[in-house]
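Reminder to self: keep the SMILES exactly as supplied, no canonicalising. Ligand is fe (ii) ion.
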Amino acid sequence: MTAPSPPAPPPDGFVDLWPTKLLGRRLPEFEAPNDALIKLIRDLERANRNLTTDYLAPDFFNLDEPPVAWLRGQVNATVIDYLRAIGIDYDVSWTIQGWPNVNRLGDYHDAHNHPGAYLSGSYYAKVPNKREPMRNRDDLRPSHITFYDPRPGINMTAIKGDPYVDPEYTVLPEPGLLMIWPAFLNHFIHPNLSKDTRVSVSFNIVLKWQDHYLPHQ
Ligand SMILES: [Fe+2]
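Structure tokens returned for the bound complex:
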């Protein structure tokens, strides 16, 4: 057992509490491996029509394919940067568990988080930036991803200019973008309103437990 920490002194200045850090990275020279990745996912989908929703399919990151090896390396490097940025400066090991997503016209993924993982993320291979001519309401954000403030209701008393006004963060990903976020963060994938497919690879970073992960509290 570790001895209890001495009481921390009160601050004399600003303190940022309960941050939620998200990392987006545009991968350099992604074009060629990205094309190979899309071809691989199309081939996989021909063999398994339910590729996107078959969560028991063989793990994508275990495939012995060059574009998968490329993406695995990019994810690992980005996870290391993420861990350093949140202050973890010791040895951490993990496995990547991932699956491809192919969203066609009208497909979406309702709000969810990723239980059992430490971090989650997606790599975007193909994102339509147009929509079919349909009479929809004009505030739709097709193919975007929205992240929700993990502290429900925190915006209810916000006033202009404070950082808690918007309970969501929404972006339209683009090909070559890799994003990583804490696995508890709820997110929603808006419907694809194009006949072009939206193709991504989602993943979980699952820690291999080591006792030195235990915080001193
Ligand atoms: Fe997700």
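Points to follow up:
The beta strands are 23-26, 94-103, 109-112, 119-126, 145-148, 168-171, 177-182, 187-189, 198-207.
The mean pLDDT is 94.
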